[in-house]
Amino acid sequence: MVEPDLNLKLIENERKYFEFIRVLRNDESLKVGFINQEEITSEQHELYMHKHHAAYFICLLDDEPVGYVGVIENDIRIAVSTEYHNLGIGKFMVSEILKRFPASTAKVKVTNIASQKLFEGMGFTKEFITYRSPFTPEGFP
Ligand SMILES: CC(C)(COP(=O)(O)OP(=O)(O)OC[C@H]1O[C@@H](n2cnc3c(N)ncnc32)[C@H](O)[C@@H]1OP(=O)(O)O)[C@@H](O)C(=O)NCCC(=O)NCCS
After folding, report:
1. Which helix (H) or strand (E) segment is 61 a member of?
2. Residue 30: CB within 6 Å of ligand 1?
3. CATH number of 8-121
4. pLDDT tens, position by position, for the chain (141 residues)?
5. What number does the ligand 1 atom closest to the CA of 92 have?
């Protein structure tokens, strides 16, 4: 649940937050939750933000950035700085983003329990399962 005394705001993304997003995206402890875990370089991020900056929003706690949420083609991407986990910030961002993009969905790894709890706790239901083949470039195991 959202801590009642937290001063949270969701604001539009601006250039001054681009690096904050990249740092969260590359954070070793958060990365395990992301589907794509490759390190994002400044150059890649600059290009990505050039294209998608308006799809991202920043969560401020007392005017300090503590998380981001983005929606691209109705797909939600979200992260909260580790030291602010479990305070309801993820939930706050998702509820705000649903006001703007009510048809949004999320792709979540089966190992990402925090994220599953977040979305299921907000009433999202499971719709698809992706099966990955055991084939590798070296052949069948
Ligand atoms: C997923 C993530 C955004 C959740 O943010 P958060 O601010 O900690 O989430 P909240 O505090 O709003 O918690 C929402 C619910 O999830 C639960 N939860 C959060 N982290 C949890 C964890 N590690 N294990 C179990 N439940 C957890 C909370 O208890 C809460 O449940 P409640 O409503 O029943 O109280 C955050 O863990 C994160 O940034 N993870 C790394 C990036 C990531 O995986 N992004 C998602 C890709 S789809």
Report:
1. strand 56-61
2. yes
3. 3.40.630.30
4. 666 789 999 999 999 999 999 999 999 999 999 998 899 999 999 999 999 999 999 999 999 999 999 999 999 999 999 999 999 999 999 999 999 999 999 999 999 999 999 999 999 999 999 998 988 888 777
5. 12
112 CA to centre of ligand 1 in angstroms: 9
Contacts of 11 (CB under 8 A, 6+ apart): 57, 58, 60
CB distance 8 to ligand 1 below 6 Å: no
| CA-closest residue to ligand 1 atom 26 | 114
Of 106, 45, 51, 100, nearest to 77 by C-alpha is: 106
For the record, the structure tokens of 88 come out as: 């309801």
